[in-house]
Specification:
Two copies of one chain form a homodimer. Chain A has three domains: 2-16 and 232-360, 3-Layer(aba) Sandwich (Rossmann fold), CATH 3.40.50; 23-97 and 117-228, Rossmann fold (3-Layer(aba) Sandwich); 392-428, Single alpha-helices involved in coiled-coils or other helix-helix interfaces, CATH 1.20.5.1300. In chain A, 46% of the residues lie in helices and 17% in strands. Chain A contains 17 helices and 14 strands. In chain A, the strands form three sheets. In chain A, strands 1-11-10-9-12-13 form a six-stranded parallel beta sheet. In chain A, strands 6-5-4-7-8 form a five-stranded parallel beta sheet, sandwiched between helices. In chain A, strands 2-3-14 form a three-stranded antiparallel beta sheet. Chain A is globular, with a radius of gyration of 26 Å. In chain A, 56% of the residues are buried. Chains A and B meet through helix 5, strand 2, strand 3, helix 10 and strand 13 of A and helix 5, strand 2, strand 3, helix 10 and strand 13 of B.
Chain lengths: 429, 429
């Protein structure tokens, strides 16, 4: 890890910079895949699956039989672990349900706000080196609690044209309504336009590689919303002498394991802990199966020391980490003053892995500094808020004059007239 | 208005279609303005203001003196109307504040969710034929309640380089922190990158013409979020014989007044009311100052009759109107079953104008069918939701095994190890 001691504020932007994404290079490919799937539907999906996933599929939807088979193939131990995680995620997301908010703003003017589920949602689950079934829990559970009627899932097939058993088990357990063996740009395009097999959806969720990321952004041109823009995963740990160097090292390494572009930062007000953490990183790293990835990510990672809590907190808010672990004596100071972070982990027994899998919080979080303006996925991500109002005769008499005057000042006479007509009728009653 | 009786479901898509936006044509211009403002800052802002707004500005920020002058120039009557509206909008948006949500998902595993304000927001207020000060109320009031620390506003100057008095008054009243005489693409680019004068912001709000709309979409490439994609304003009225034809006509006309591309639809289960509404439209239209605009919008508008409530409701949900007025005997049926709408107005004394100005609800709403997946602007639009967790020794012992098993199944050994280390230490205590 590269070390920086009390860097000047003008150096912070550099220290906080993330790898820049090469949007423009990928867009022409994305645009042409979208065009083909818009016009050719399933045929184009199958063609691109042959091309990119090297597998020939007759049927892109996973059958009931395949699901049943997958479900029986998952070990009882893994099933129990997933069920425990599901129970915690459900508890935390169900608690996010809110009631209708109703206010009589003036006598006779009743305004209320209600949430209604987004009817059709699409979940993208990446494939690749490992089956990321935990992301299914994080997306399908709140979709189900919100009451989305169609929960479509796409994930790339392996070379023999299948999805991993545990992916099928988890999707089935969480109430996904349709599962497709489709990955990459073609999955995002399929769920955006709809094909003969894949339903079109109103909002797309889930992580992915750079092709999926650009495809999700592209989908917003076609009346589809997305959960958030994505980037490489990040962790910032702030620690002092109350931290356990071996735990800090393990947490930094677990983030570094995601990929060579993972962003790992240690901030400290106690530089004396740095050597012990560095030593622990070396020791633990040697034993990791994904050592070659982790080594590269750690080589690009940073240890930054600050002389005061204020400076440390200001830097952290400036960075806006996706994951933020606090191992400080004065932990409340660091909790109360955090303005920009995706998910916050407090204390020595709260590893990021807990939130990644099983504590109950969501792991689909804003990266790349987007914690400054985006929430992580939560129950509200699957709702729209709608407002309602009902005004009585008395009510329109109470606010009518104000509306008339404002409409007139904005030069909108028909807006004014809609009120004048009603007020005149009431005056003549 | 064009009339359609019980159209077949296969015809609905056509009846629901909105004018398609010509995104691609405008993008090259938007990209080049962004590039210039990124590199040249204020100088480029001033150059584009000369080019597009035909005015030469030395100073783009509105001064304290200009604000004070504007405030004194607004009539007492208009000030009272704006203050009444402000009070109602504040009541309704303040009621949307929520408490921290806290759940102990398992013994020793405490998870909570808190909202923190987006620190820097940018409000775009269109200029043009009339001063749209009502939009300032709708955006600055919730921003202030949420606690955003920097509320930047941009609006295009008139030919003499000023903003209307009532715009300055309203911005000042609502606590906007900095006001700029900058419009169009250059305003959006300025707030995205920041210039010598204009602060960069994290999220952009507000309506605008097609240039502003494309510029807001473009800004999302540069770590800026936007409230929602925009399109021409829309109204759908559903009415039966309990409706007052003159009020229905006035409401349809008030929507049509926004522009020739305004979308106006009347749905009815009682075709016998149609002639009376048509006649009222003709009568009222003749007296409107914006007659030429309204006529064109009304010529493109539609009256659609359905034989049953079920079909009417299904069509309305399929359309997803921005504004939705219900004047039906059985109004609850139409309230309870609406799945996709921006804002809903119930009963004969609830004109859309009420929500546009003064009842308390927000008027920044999803158009173009986006009610299927986007909320209108509300208090939460100015917050991020962040999650926190704190796990005790007992807690990690309760969920540790599940995490280890899931991390192993996903092939993430470092994630597993972060838990194993802690569990081993606790076992040895």
């Amino acid at each position: 890890m590269k070390q920086f001691n009390n860097p000047l504020p003008k150096e912070w932007a550099d220290l906080s910079s993330r790898p820049t994404s090469s949007y423009e290079d990928i867009e022409p490919l994305v645009a042409s895949v979208f065009e083909d799937i818009k016009t050719e539907g399933d045929n184009a999906i199958k063609m691109y699956t042959r091309k990119f996933d090297k597998v020939n599929l007759n049927q892109i939807q996973v059958s009931e039989k395949e699901i049943a088979f997958g479900v029986t193939n998952v070990s009882t131990e893994l099933k129990s672990a997933i069920e425990l995680a599901k129970s915690n995620i459900e508890k935390f997301h169900r608690a996010q349900k809110t009631d209708r908010i109703s206010v009589e703003t003036q006598d006779g003017v009743l305004c209320w706000q209600e949430k209604r589920p987004i009817q059709k949602v699409g979940l993208y689950i990446p494939g690749g080196s490992a089956p990321l079934f935990s992301t299914i829990l994080m997306l399908a559970i709140p979709a189900k609690i919100a009451g989305c009627s169609e929960i479509v899932m796409c994930s790339p097939p392996d070379k023999s044209g299948n999805l991993p058993d545990v992916v099928l088990y988890t999707a089935h357990l969480c109430g996904v309504t349709k599962i497709f063996k489709v990955g990459g740009i073609q999955a995002i395009a399929g769920m955006s336009f709809g094909t003969e097999s894949i339903p079109s959806v109103h909002k797309l969720f889930g992580p992915g590689n750079q092709y999926v990321t650009v495809a999700k952004q592209w989908a917003t041109r076609y009346n589809v919303a997305i959960d958030m823009p994505a980037g490489p995963s990040e962790l910032l740990v702030v620690a002092d002498e109350s931290a356990n160097p071996s735990y800090v090292a393990a947490d930094l390494l677990s983030q570094a394991e995601h990929g060579i572009d993972s962003q790992v930062i240690l901030v400290t007000t106690t530089p004396s802990i740095i050597p012990a953490v560095q030593m622990e990183i070396e020791d633990q790293l040697a034993q990791l199966p994904r050592k070659s990835i982790v080594e590269k990510a750690i080589a690009n990672s940073k240890v930054i020391s600050f002389p005061t809590d204020d400076l440390a907190i200001e830097f952290i808010n400036n960075y806006g980490p996706e994951h933020y672990i606090i191992c400080m004596k004065n932990e409340d100071l660091y909790i109360d003053n955090i303005e920009n972070a995706g998910s916050v982990f407090v204390g020595n027994y709260t590893p990021e892995s807990a939130g990644d899998y099983a504590s109950g919080t969501n792991h689909t979080l804003p990266t790349n500094g987007y914690a400054k303006q985006y929430s992580g996925v939560n129950l509200d991500s699957f709702f729209k808020q709608m407002t309602f109002q009902k005004i009585t005769a008395k009510g329109i008499q109470n606010i009518g004059n104000a509306i008339q005057r404002m409409a007139e000042a904005e030069g909108l006479e028909a807006h004014r007239n809609a009120v004048t007509l009603r007020l005149n009728d009431l005056a003549n009653e």
